[in-house]
């Protein structure tokens, strides 16, 4: 049974794109020390899951797959919750993967992996800050995917992050811009606490040179 569990865990990891794999590891920091996660490849990550989540490695994997929008893998590998009407994770539109889920990073047509595709967002006429909930980590990941390479200027000028902290984030996550942006947004999220809402982030980014889709997404989240 243990070998079957390890095999399923590895199959799941191999079905993720590189960016999704890095996001998966990032979200595991709640359960596994970062110092052990960062150097881990896919087989090593399976061992860490079995070690730190005894008897719950598949459940933990399913939880994270929901958070990064890979519900298809929960169904394909019959992970916990596959037949329980998993639906959308609460807190906003799903991130969907435009691929067949193969570990090669190619989509169903054989082209290069295009990453996560965001569903079309509907612009709300206004954002009401009253009683607005905080952004979830999954929503921060959606924003991170859209911010792009200009994120450092935005983080300093619009989110008030320190340059030294941004340099540390870059060193901790070399070569992965999406995860770097996500960590920067998490820093803002922790600092703002209850004010870390879609409307507040929208206000912060409204004057920044960002993809308009970022603001559309935040308005959509704030209207839900």
TrEMBL record:
<feature type="region of interest" description="Disordered">
    <location>
        <begin position="82"/>
        <end position="115"/>
    </location>
</feature>
<dbReference type="Pfam" id="PF02758">
    <property type="entry name" value="PYRIN"/>
</dbReference>
<feature type="domain" description="Death">
    <location>
        <begin position="159"/>
        <end position="221"/>
    </location>
</feature>
<dbReference type="GO" id="GO:0007165">
    <property type="term" value="P:signal transduction"/>
</dbReference>
<dbReference type="Pfam" id="PF00531">
    <property type="entry name" value="Death"/>
</dbReference>
<protein>
    <submittedName>
        <fullName>CRADD protein</fullName>
    </submittedName>
</protein>
<dbReference type="InterPro" id="IPR000488">
    <property type="entry name" value="Death_dom"/>
</dbReference>
<dbReference type="InterPro" id="IPR011029">
    <property type="entry name" value="DEATH-like_dom_sf"/>
</dbReference>
<dbReference type="InterPro" id="IPR004020">
    <property type="entry name" value="DAPIN"/>
</dbReference>
């Amino acid at each position: 049974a243990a070998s079957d569990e390890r095999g399923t865990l590895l199959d799941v990891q191999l079905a993720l794109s590189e960016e999704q794999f890095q996001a998966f590891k990032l979200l595991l920091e709640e359960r596994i020390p970062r110092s052990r996660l960062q150097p881990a490849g896919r087989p090593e990550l399976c061992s860490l899951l079995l070690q730190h989540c005894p008897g719950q490695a598949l459940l933990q994997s399913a939880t994270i797959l929901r958070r990064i929008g890979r519900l298809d893998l929960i169904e394909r590998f019959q992970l916990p919750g596959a037949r329980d009407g998993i639906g959308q994770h609460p807190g906003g539109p799903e991130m969907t993967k435009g691929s067949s889920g193969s570990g090669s990073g190619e989509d169903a047509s054989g082209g290069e992996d295009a990453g996560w595709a965001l569903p079309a967002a509907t612009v709300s006429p206004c954002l009401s800050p009253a009683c607005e909930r905080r952004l979830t980590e999954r929503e921060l990941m959606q924003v991170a995917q859209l911010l792009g390479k200009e994120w450092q200027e935005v983080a300093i000028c619009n989110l008030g992050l320190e340059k030294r902290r941004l340099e540390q984030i870059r060193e901790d996550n070399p070569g992965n811009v999406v995860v770097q942006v996500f960590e920067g947004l998490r820093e803002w999220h922790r600092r703002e606490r209850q004010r870390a809402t879609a409307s507040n982030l929208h206000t912060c980014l409204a004057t920044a040179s960002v993809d308009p889709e970022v603001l559309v997404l935040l308005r959509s989240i704030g209207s839900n």
